[in-house]
Structures are given as structure tokens and as C-alpha cells.
Amino acid sequence: MPRLPIPRTRGARLTALGAVVVVLAAAAVVWSTRSPAPPLARTQDAVLDLPAAPGSADKVAIDTTTYFPERTPAPAVLLAHGFGGTKNSVADQARELAGQGFVVMTWSARGFGRSTGKIGLNDPDGEVADARGLIDHLVSSREVVTDANGDPKVAVTGGSYGGALALLLAGTDKRVDAIAPVITYNDLAQGLLPNAAATTAPTAGTPAAGAFTADGVFKKSWAGNLFSAGSGQAGSGAGPAMEAPEPGQQTRDTGQQTGGTGGGAAPPQPGPRAAPPAPADLCGRFTAPVCAAYTELATTGKASSRTTDLLRRVSPASVTNRITVPTLLVQGENDTLFGLDQSDATARQITAAGGKVTTVWYTGGHDGGSPGPKLRGRIAEFLRYSLTGEGSPPANGFSYDVQGTLRANGTPSVRTVAAPAYPGLTTAPAERRLFPLTGPAQPVVRPAGASPSAVSGIPGLNGLVSGNSRLSAVLGIDPPGQYAQFGTPPMDSQVVVAGSPTVRLRVSADPAHPEPEAVLFAKLYDVGQDGTRVLPANAVAPLRVRGLPADGSPVEVTVTLPGIVRPVEAGHSLRLVVGTTDQAYAVPATPSAFRIAPAEDTALAVPVVPGTSVGAGVPVWQLAGIGVTLAIGLVVVVFAAIRRRRAHDVDPDLAKTPMVIDGLRKRYSGGFVAVDGLSFRVEPGQVLGLLGPNGAGKTTTLRMLMGLITPTEGSIRVFGHRVRPGAPVLSRIGSFVEGSGFLPHLSGKANLELYWASTGRPAEKAHFAEALEIAGLGDAVHRRVKTYSQGMRQRLAIAQAMLGLPELMVLDEPTNGLDPPQIHQMREVLRRYAATGRTVVVSSHLLAEVEQTCTHVVVMHRGRLVASGEVGELAAAGGEATFRVDTPEAAAEALRATGGVTDVAVEGDLVHANLDGVPRAEAVALLVRAGVAVEQAGPRRRLEDAFLQLVTEES
């Protein structure tokens, strides 16, 4: 997992501190408005011996607690816990339901808490059979209402693992009268191995219908978390956020009936415990078939037919065609484990069987938290009406929450939108709005080992960052070169996405490295007008595209993106990103390359569900706390606006000047001053050499120029804009400061295309042809980079810096590692670029090359400016001269005999001398009087000598 970046500048730290203050203030409001604790209820603890399997004489001990209302007999509710939890995990909810008039039975499922047996993932012959035994127990109770046939009035509810149990029990036991599954799955094979790609367009008219294509991509992070929750000693571990017990709220299993204590005040008594797994038992508390299935998935990333059959057998999808009882499906909008597509499939299947389904989407889920008091009350009302006929039937067949600011109950919902029915079940199909999707075909690469991997979020913690653009950026990483992106035009007005968008894509293999299948990951970002992007619910759609032709011909598929609820504001756009890796999934480790493009005339089909807003307002007594939060938020906004204004500090008089450095100083902690009072300017068309010995401050200056560090004093302006970290004007600078990191198996041109695509700017603004022409790579640009010489790699790196033809290009040691012919070629590249009217700044230690390449030079020593000006003027400042003569030796003798002239040297027909104040014209006359014919006389252009003299004088 990547490290969270620590803000390094004072402004960034203050902004982060302000955000923390707002979060803490909001948390205080939420804490002050928490629901009161549920009332105490009379409880009865019992350990029931149930058959281990049909026809087996062996028994399993199931630890139960039953909660009784004030008045009995009453209708009963079986309340199942989530995976990794126990009966204690749902104790508060059980008391709440008992307080509303239900007899509530809770229990620890096989392999959890004090119950014995092995975990079979809701096996029909295991956990489901246990639940039927619990109903048998209720039948014998005089405190449960029964019908004329002696069957108990009973409903089943639970979250996740418990929600699936509710569905499986309703499909196998006709005594169940109603169910309310929460954030659960329809098909465990699709939940853990989703595949969002289909060769044919989806036919379901519901808003969140998933592709549910076979041979999916293994959701390794979530599956590993769940397997770990069931692998430790009995009673340990907690499941997802919804299923874990609150601290301090666990009750003790007593094996005895207690009074009105809520099951938590009686002294502990000995009770059955599942034996901890032996050290050598790699299956933990799982049955052998489940352990073998997980081992296969975790080691191969794929499911055999045996594993698929097992997952199907323990999934509600195996029995939904037999469920006809009233069903309330509650699914989370922030859930990367079991998304909205799982609830959608269940709703369609039960409706087809003749059942009546009410669907609720809320802002929680495995990533976002459990239902709040209002939604729990709605579940209780549904169960009461279904079991007794009291109250009112559900007013709407479908409702969903539109996420916004914090509410009194802590759920991030501003309003609830209600529709008469879930679209596509018994009414017309869901409306879908089409948005053009643009972008050229783009190459993508899967690196060896699939590392680095894209990061879309952290399973179970995504709710902490959902909807927050800054935190989302921290946990949202798309490595350059690994993804293609396509965008829609900005929205004319707000569009509330409610369901699963779809799009047609073309995927092809790289003919040079043909792969028969591609594993890809599609994400849909909400992009603001300022370029910030948010991945709604951190949702990712994995897809496996098979049958890719070796010749690179494309395969066209329909991709169903994750179901989300997201208000996309006017001016925002949607951006589809299709990558080759994701850290939460099992990705093939072999390196591969693919090409991705939208299908011809394709559009992004976005589901929308019109309805009526029915969300309640905030009570008056809470407004004071919320007002404090808003006031603090306003302070942060004002502070950010001031910083933004400072970030756009522009001097219009310098709008055409590439760079002006004024009084620049950088002092590090400890007192070391790297740059002190540096001032100079660079004009258009110049090639400026930045010279100085090691420690002169050149690198620090370049880092401040690129916005990587902040000056202590002074300023840098680029085209009049003051440079700060993240300043927009930095996009007008091209740079080659560190290693290029080219992918060796791709061509030079493909590497440049991947780099430009990672910037997010339009391809037509890259100016590939111009950059390549200036770099002078010729046909070599189509060869793989691994065949390049060092000089060709350097020229490709310069071409990369030239992409977009930046007005200012900054190069650090561009001739490193080059031989003399390659250095000469690099010199020509830089000259050709400057000839276009643009400006180049070169930092180099090769003084002779700077002399031949640069038009101007700045000499630094110990952080200070030593000299600056044209190269020729600076080189001539030392008083040395060169004479081209017919008789060099005679000229040398004449000069040596002249007082004040020193360092006379002969080089072919040239004679060099340090005149040291003797006028050059007088020296020429002296040579003529000595009988020497002088063909040419001028300053000796040796920058090295001038440089050494300047540095020595400064020392």
C-alpha cells in the first residue's frame, strides 16, 4: 500500500489542519446526536444441539440468545450476524427489535463464537439447516404467535452473510413469512469473481443490472479479509464494518435464562466452545471443500467448475426462483464487496418467481457502515406489516439516498429519492442518458509482476474517503502507461447517476506480444471544472476479455460499470479510465500490452431514476452544532481562497519573459543556506547554461524552479507567473531532470504516447511530429527502446520533454553518459529547439559543451551568483587572446619578449597569450614589426579558464 503523503509546506499543513478541525467538529455533532441506547429486554440463552448434516448422528452446538418484548406471544424475527461476527454482534439491533414488539432470536453461526462445527458459507446442509432447526425451536415456544396451522409468524433479517442466510432460508422453508436481507450477495461466484465484460449488450432493464459474465477476476483483498476472519480461533475476529460488535457492547453467553439484563449482567458460566484449529490445520474453521476452493482461488486467481459449483450452491441465486414472500432488499451505495448489481439480480429473480420486492439503496455498505436508526425503523415497520398486517405497506417500491453532508445519524445522506417501483421489474425499463465518449485508441501496458499496481481504495475503509477529492486522490493511483482514458463533454445541468453505466469498448492485443485474454479494470471518475477527480464509492469494474486475435484485431465488448449513486454537477464531466492493474484483485504477473478504444459511435449510457425527494430536515436543536461546523469550514474556505489568489500572482510586464529570478534564497533547517540572493533573467530564444562546482546550489535552484521546493525568500517568475508548488504555469515548462523510465519492450513513439496520455491533455496538443523531428531520431522512433544506444535514449528523453512544445525547457546534465559524437548530436538538438523561439536552461558540469551549446551562462558558487552574460563576453573577460599567424614560433618569441604578456602557447598556426592589460591592437602591431603576418586576432574563447578564475576569486 502506498504511504500517505505528509504535507511539506506551511500552507499545505495549515490546510490539512483546517480539514482536521472541520472533521472533528462534524464528529462532535454526530456524537451529540447519536441514538439513545436500545432498551433492555428479557433474554434467554440456550445451546441447541442440531444435526451436523442430514441423516447424521453427529451434533453441532449452536449458541443462541432470544430477546422477548414486553408482551407475548408476538411475531418472531431470526436475526443473523455477518461473517466474522457472533450473536453478540447484533445484540443492540436485537434489543431494538424486541422493544418494538418482536421475539428476536440470535445465534452464533457454525464455527463462530461458542458454536461448534465448521464454516460452510451458508451451506444448505449446514448453516441453512441450522436455521430451520431454530424455527423448529420457535414452534415449541408459547411466546411466539402461530397461525392456524401451528406455524410461527417468523421473518428473517441480517446483514451480508446473515442477509444471504435470510434468502437461502426463505427459499427452502415455507414457514418464513418475510425477509429483509441487508448488503448481501446474490451469487457468491460473481461477488468474489466479477466479470463486467459481455460480448452482447445487456437485456435487463433494471438500473443496476450487472454483466454477471463467467470467468471473472478474483477479488483477492476482500476474499483474504473474509478468509482471515474465519481462520483464527473461535470467537476472535470481526467482520466488515456492519457486522463487528461495538466496543463495550458485547454480551456474555451464559447458557442460562436471565431477567431484564440484556444478556450482559449475569456472571459468566461455562459454555461450549469450538476447539481452536490445530497449528498444522491450514483451513482454520472452514470445511475442507471451502478451504480447497479458497486455496485454488488465492493461488491461481481463477475458479474451476468444482469451485464455481460450490459457490453457486451456497448462494441465494440457487433458491431465489422459489422465494415468493414479501422481501425488503437493502443494499449499500458504498460497497466494494457486494455492489448494487447483487441486489438488482435478486430483485429480478424474486419478482420473476412471483414475489413482491421493495428495494432500498442507502449510503452505507461494507465500506460505508450499517443502516442508521431511520432505516432500521423502516426495516422494523416492514417486518411488522408483513407479519401482522399492522401499520402501512411500503409507500414506494424503490428509494435511494443521494449522498451529501453529514446528517444527524451520521449517514452522509442529504436527501432520499423515492420512486413508485424499481424500474424494469414490473414497470418500464430504467431511463438511460447517452453522453458522447471521446478519445483515441490508446496503448496500455501491464508491467511484469503487475507492479506497481493501481490503487482504487482500501477494502473496508473506502467510506472514509468517499466523495472527498483530496483523500480520494491519496488512495486513488493510476500508474502512468497502465491506463487509457476517455471523457465526456461537461454536463449542461446536474445529472444524478443511479445505477450501472454501460459502454462499448474495443480491446486488442499487441501483435508483438500477443495475449489470448486481457484482464482490465474500468473506473468512472467525476471530474470537476478544476480538474480534480473523484471515484464514486471507490468502485471498480474488473473484466476479462477472452479470444483476442494474435494479429491485433479488436474484440468489442459491452462493459457494465459499477452501480453508483452520484450527483454530477453542471460543468463537471465523466472520465472513463481503463487500466491493467488493481491492487485489490488477482492480476496476471506476465508483462503484456493491449490497445483500448471506444467502439465506433459509442456513448456512455448513464441510468437515471426520477423520483420525489422525501428526506427529512435537521432538527432545530442540532443547528447550533452544525453552525459551528459550517463556520469553521467557512474559515478554511476563505483561507484556501487567499492561497489561491496568491498562487495566481502575475506580473503582466513579464508575460513574455521566460524566467526571472529575484533575490532567491533557500535556507534549510539547521541553518545551511544552499542559495543566497540569486538574481538573473532569461530571455526568449536563449540557451542558458547554469554552471557551478558541486554544492554551488544549481540543483536547489532547479528544484525551486520546478515547484518541488519552496524558496525561503525571493521569487521565481515564469512568463510573469510566480512559481509555487502546483502552480498552473508549471505546465508550460518541459523538463528532463531524472531518469526517463522508458518501458524497454515498447517503441520510442509508444513510450512518448503513454507519457502524454498520463498527463491527461488532448493528443492533438502533444506535437509528436515536431518533437521527434527536433530530436532527430528518424525511423528509430518505431524501434523498441531496449535496442537504443545511450545517445538515442537521451534524445528520446529530450523529445519527451519537448512534447507539447513547452515555451521553457529545463534539462539537468542532458549529455551524461554520451560519447563525443553523441554529445555533438545532442548539441544540435538543443540548438534546433532554441531556433524555434523557445528557451532552454541547461545545468551541466561539461564547461566545453556549455561553451559550444549555450548562448548565455550563469556561474554560481556557494549559492551566490558569480557572473552572468553571453558566453563569448564571459570567456573574453580574462584578457586572453588568440592570433592566427604565418610563423607561429616567431610570433611566440616576440610576445614572450613583451613585458606583461604571459602564458604564451603555440597550437598549430594559432598562438595563445594572456595580454594582461596590453591592448590587443598594440600586440598586433608588435607582431607586424617583428615580421610576422597576422591573419586573425581575437579573444581566446575558453570558458573553462574564465570559470576557474571566477570561482577562485570568489573562494
Automatic annotation (TrEMBL):
<dbReference type="Pfam" id="PF00005">
    <property type="entry name" value="ABC_tran"/>
</dbReference>
<feature type="region of interest" description="Disordered">
    <location>
        <begin position="231"/>
        <end position="281"/>
    </location>
</feature>
<keyword id="KW-0547">Nucleotide-binding</keyword>
<keyword id="KW-0813">Transport</keyword>
<keyword id="KW-0067">ATP-binding</keyword>
<keyword id="KW-1133">Transmembrane helix</keyword>
<dbReference type="InterPro" id="IPR003439">
    <property type="entry name" value="ABC_transporter-like_ATP-bd"/>
</dbReference>
<dbReference type="Pfam" id="PF02129">
    <property type="entry name" value="Peptidase_S15"/>
</dbReference>
<feature type="compositionally biased region" description="Low complexity">
    <location>
        <begin position="247"/>
        <end position="256"/>
    </location>
</feature>
<dbReference type="InterPro" id="IPR013736">
    <property type="entry name" value="Xaa-Pro_dipept_C"/>
</dbReference>
<dbReference type="GO" id="GO:0016787">
    <property type="term" value="F:hydrolase activity"/>
</dbReference>
<comment type="similarity">
    <text>Belongs to the ABC transporter superfamily.</text>
</comment>
<feature type="transmembrane region" description="Helical">
    <location>
        <begin position="620"/>
        <end position="642"/>
    </location>
</feature>
<dbReference type="InterPro" id="IPR027417">
    <property type="entry name" value="P-loop_NTPase"/>
</dbReference>
<dbReference type="InterPro" id="IPR029058">
    <property type="entry name" value="AB_hydrolase_fold"/>
</dbReference>
<keyword id="KW-0812">Transmembrane</keyword>
<feature type="compositionally biased region" description="Pro residues">
    <location>
        <begin position="267"/>
        <end position="279"/>
    </location>
</feature>
<dbReference type="InterPro" id="IPR003593">
    <property type="entry name" value="AAA+_ATPase"/>
</dbReference>
<dbReference type="InterPro" id="IPR017871">
    <property type="entry name" value="ABC_transporter-like_CS"/>
</dbReference>
<protein>
    <submittedName>
        <fullName>Alpha/beta fold hydrolase</fullName>
    </submittedName>
</protein>
<dbReference type="InterPro" id="IPR008979">
    <property type="entry name" value="Galactose-bd-like_sf"/>
</dbReference>
<dbReference type="Pfam" id="PF08530">
    <property type="entry name" value="PepX_C"/>
</dbReference>
<keyword id="KW-0472">Membrane</keyword>
<keyword id="KW-0378">Hydrolase</keyword>
<feature type="domain" description="ABC transporter">
    <location>
        <begin position="659"/>
        <end position="887"/>
    </location>
</feature>
<dbReference type="InterPro" id="IPR000383">
    <property type="entry name" value="Xaa-Pro-like_dom"/>
</dbReference>
